[in-house]
């Protein structure tokens, strides 16, 4: 074959390869919008299994400085905090707002145990509080290796009374110290005897939201500093193992429903199924959504603390916490 013919064939071959790649690229560009539409439809369908189509978050109350830490008691009354105003509020099942406690030790995250005690991350002095039904306060010894905690933020209580809590560092205006007391921002376990605190996790950037499954077998922890949420297996002695990435999203507070769907906060409320697949987002008309819980007599109302307001949206599923 002459050099000219060989060159012509080579050029034709290259053009065919380029044309083939361009056709594949065009197919990809055409298919991308279809994939996005399909994902959007899947997410919409997933969200339609959580809330009624077209349902929106309803504002129940406002005028707060920063709402946090919602949790419901056995009847469905929801307590939450207005931390800058140093108070715990309660929204009753009758639809009435009242002050539960003020001052409240600058309470942040809250959780009720099976005995009706309200546990609080009281970060005025970096403590864990137990508030009895008659509102008597017991301060739990809240130090690790002889040093104060950074600032307990959120907590989850097991059936046997063990408490997992996150301890990030957010500088507070009411503190007289400027340095982080602990060597890292960690996750701790308060044993059921409520006397011993163990550090369980020290490899997260800034752990924040935390919730466990109703069966007590798994724990979810949101690393808001690394924009990830992790799952762990809970062992019989309270230790954690089998760390797995649940989703590529961090969270302030979080909750779970009885189907295993996880509700994360920040920009509205973002919901993932038990496998970490995104189901959708509930929009909230505030700059930041801090936390969520289920409440109401039937546990089918999602209560949302978002900056200066308290919101609620009815759900098609029952909440666990």
Describe this structure in words.
By secondary structure, this protein is mainly beta. It has 2 domains: 48 residues; 261 residues, 6 Propeller (Neuraminidase). 14% of the residues lie in helices and 41% in strands. It contains 1 helix and 26 strands. The chain has a 4-stranded antiparallel beta sheet, with no helix packed on it. A 4-stranded antiparallel beta sheet has the order 2-3-4-5, with no helix packed on it.
CATH domain class of the largest domain: Mainly Beta
The whole-number mean of residue pLDDT values reads 90
How many helical elements? 1
Query: Based on DSSP secondary structure assignment, what is the total number of beta strands?
Result: 26
**Poorly predicted segments:** 2-8, 27-43
State the fourth-level CATH superfamily of the largest domain: TolB, C-terminal domain
Task: Using the CA coordinates, give the radius of gyration.
Answer: 24 Å
Distance between the termini: 79 Å
Entry keywords:
single chain, 321 residues, mainly beta, Neuraminidase, 2 domains, four-stranded antiparallel beta sheet, 1 helix, 26 strands, 14% helix, disordered N terminus
Explain briefly what this protein structure is.
This protein is mostly beta strands.
